[in-house]
């Protein structure tokens, strides 16, 4: 599940045009099978950058692009197949930036109920 909380970056508050920037980048993660995972970024830039998530260079589905500065990708009940390189890319008319991390999922399969989806919190 992908989740983004609305926090206004300073360039958006004062109307200053700015290229996209990662204030907080992705960090490597290792979890046991069946655990929930949160991969977090904090972004800035104005106009607000479009945000895209990828796993092993494959785009992950998203249902909206209206977010603030803090965003996270949530994976419920991680499985070994969720392991890989996760990338977050942000784009506006002044540039493109990306950050990536490795996710390791260790152990035996424990859960059948899992999901990956985007939720935006206000």
Automatic annotation (TrEMBL):
Gene3D superfamilies: Immunoglobulins. Keywords: Immunoglobulin domain. PROSITE patterns: IG_LIKE (PS50835). Residues 19-104 form the Ig-like domain. SUPFAM superfamilies: Immunoglobulin. The keyword Calcium does not apply. Coiled coil: none annotated. InterPro entries: Ig-like_dom, Ig-like_dom_sf, Ig-like_fold, Ig_I-set, Ig_sub, Ig_sub2. It comes from the Eukaryota. Belongs to the protein kinase superfamily. CAMK Ser/Thr protein kinase family. This is Ig-like domain-containing protein.
């Amino acid at each position: 599940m992908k989740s983004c909380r609305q926090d206004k970056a300073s360039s958006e508050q004062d109307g200053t045009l700015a290229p996209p920037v990662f204030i907080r980048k992705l960090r490597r993660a290792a979890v046991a099978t069946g655990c929930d995972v949160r991969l977090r970024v904090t972004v800035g830039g104005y106009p607000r950058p479009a945000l895209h998530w990828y796993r092993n260079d494959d785009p992950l589905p998203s249902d909206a692009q209206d977010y603030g500065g803090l965003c996270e990708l949530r994976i419920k009940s991680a499985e070994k197949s969720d392991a890989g390189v996760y990338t977050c890319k942000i784009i506006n008319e002044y540039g493109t930036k990306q950050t990536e991390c490795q996710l390791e999922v260790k152990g035996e399969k424990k859960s059948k109920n899992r999901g990956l989806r985007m939720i935006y919190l206000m």
